[in-house]
Each structure stands twice: as C-alpha cells, then as structure tokens.
Fold this sequence. Notes:
Blueprint lengths: L3 H12 L10 E3 L2 E4 L2 E5 L12 H10 L14 H5 L2 H14 L3 E5 L2 H12 L4 E6 L4 H9 L3 E5 L4 H11 L5 E7 L11 H10 L3 E5 L14 H4 L8 E5 L9 E5 L1 H10 L1 H4 L6 H11 L6 H20 L10 E5 L3 H13 L2 E2 L2 E2 L10 E5 L6 H13 L1
Parallel strand pairs: 3-12, 5-6, 5-7, 7-8, 8-9
Antiparallel strand pairs: 1-2, 2-3, 4-10, 9-10, 11-14, 13-14
Helix pairs in contact: 4-12, 5-6, 5-10, 13-15
Amino acid sequence: MKFANLSKALSELKKNNAFRQARTFDVNGYAIKINDSQLINFSSNDYLGLAGNRDLQTQFFEQADMAKNNWMSASSSRPLTGTNSSHTQLESLLANSYGKTKALLFNSGYHANTGILPSITDEQDLILADKFVHASLIDGLRLGNAKFKRFAHNNLEHLSQLLSTYRDQYRNVWIVSESIFSMDGDIAPLADLVALKNKHQCSLYLDEAHAIGCLGKNGLGLAEQLNLIEEVDLIIGTFGKALAGCGGFAVGNQTLIESMINFSRSWLFSTALPPINIEWNLFIWQQLASFNHERENLSKLGYLFKSGLEKSNKEFLGDSHIVPVLESGNEHVVALSSSLETKGILAMPIRSPTVPKGAERIRFSLTANMTEESVSHCLDCINDC
Length: 385
C-alpha cells in the first residue's frame, strides 16, 4: 500500500489520543464560535485583546495610504525588490525602541528562529539552549553547523557546569532562552543568565515572543521590565501574538543583523510580507507604550485565575498569562478539554509528545479583554469537570 508507513504513524497517533486536526473557528474578540456553539476562547495568543479591536482597525484604514504601489504583495524576496519603505521604516523604529543598532524583519517568529542561529554560528561555536525552548529554536539548532547542548529548564547550576566545562573549547558561545516559556508559562531567570553570560564572556539570545506587548513599561518584554535590554545581544520578537499582526523580528548590533541579511536562508529566500501587513505592524508598534491598561488587566486576570486554581487545589504551572493545568495522560486531557467545551470554554489540550509523557496539560491563555466574570466562570467549569 502506498504511504503505508504514514498511515501506520497516523493510526498510532489516533490510538494514543495524539492525532491533530485543524478545526474551523469564527473568532470575535475573546468569544469564539464553533458551528453554532459560542465559547470563551482560552486558547488564543491575542494577549492584549487587540486582534478583534474594530476601533483600531478603523483608525488604521482611515490613515492608510491605499494608493501605495504593491500594497497587497511584496512580490519578491527582500534582497531582490521586496524591500518597501514600510519595511525599512519599521526596522528603524524597532532598533530605536530597543536602543540597538539595527533590526531585521522576518516573515514569522518561526522563520526568525530557524534562520538566525545557523547564519551567525559555525562549527567553531557552541550553543547552550534551555531544554524547553520552542520547536522553531530546536529546528534552528539542527539546521546549523554549530555544536549545541541543552541545559535543564531554567537550571542555572546545570548551565554553569556546561559553561565551565566547554567555554574554552569554542570561539563563541551563545546562551539561548525564551523569556516566557510557551508550554509552561514560567519566566526565565534573565538577570542570572546575564550574569553567567558576562562571567564566561558569552552572548545571549532571548526569544520574547510571549512577552512582547505584555511585559515592560513600554511593552518591550522581560528585558525591558528588568532593565536588561543592553545586556541581551539578540532579542527576538513577534507581531503575531499580543500585537495582532504577523511576522517576526530580531534586534541587535550591525554585525549580527548584516550576517542574517547575507546568510539567513529563511530571510533570503522568502517572499517578503506585504506592505499592508508591515504598515499594520508599524501602526500597532507606534501605540505599544499606550497599552498599559491592557497590560494591567492581563496581569490582574492572571492573578485571579491562578488564585482560583490554588483555592481548588489544582496542579498548575506558570508565572504569567499562560497557565497550564496539569492532567496526566493524553486521554485525560482530551476528555477534560471536550468536557470544558460543552460548558462554553475553549481550552485546548497539550499532549505528549509535545510535552513529556505524564506532564500533559490544558494550556489556558488569558487575554486582556476578558472579564473577571468570564475567568470566574472558567474556574467553575474546571471544578465541575
């Protein structure tokens, strides 16, 4: 039988309750419609609640220059004719926001993480990456020629041991971490990572995808909140989560960014994002510092949700707006997710092998436009289920 190996692999996924399907949703703010059922969406990365903000969209189109050429498509990669004035304007704004020399846009955070590390390292370099970094970073490690090792999640002692053992054997060493980890919702010990970086004369790569917009006085992320932007050599961000847009970016010094422009395959060989998308990203970024109310409400709702889980003696993880509730076994998390759905809550199961076997969970993502009543209702549904 043709593709019998694939059929067998899919059958195994179904047997282990790990089979995925793309469902069709109609999203309106934090409400979501599946067929005829209206649910509260606890599975979105729209952390500031901007994606469904019609007032913002109206403001954008009222000031947008729709007469621009190639508004809907760049029609080319950036090194050819795909670089529009919108791209360079946004890159300049990003660099200035972080006080870095240069910035570079990517088509997504995934494109950034798969393309950057292979473009700035080689076989004479070592990468030490947190065990829980995103799949895109793992792919970036595998695509490059640098040696890499993984340190136990947020384990400074293990990282320190690796640095003491291997630092002198390599020309450059990169420490790679996320600021907020997407599967556990916990936060990296950034000040300690900086201290180790300085002690061993390394470089630090920080993926702020789940912190951009949510942390820091101006929404620049954890590095801003801790006043450590200058200490981080490369900051990676995304527009596709809290900022309600699309695309990713990197900010750093001139040598690093120019190396990406010349050697990053995911940047070199991808058609650039359309100017209309870049203009929207620019429009949102210009207002990022003004979303303090949203950031405060997101923090307040996260505290309310975690406090409710504690009172109910539920086992959960996270120090942020991402709150995974643990429920061992794929069968159990799928059943719990389905039960919550019947009560009007959309909260997707995270199953093994995406997370380790025995650490399956329902990943609850809070958004700033939710109400306290909706969060309390979700807590009641969790208890009922």
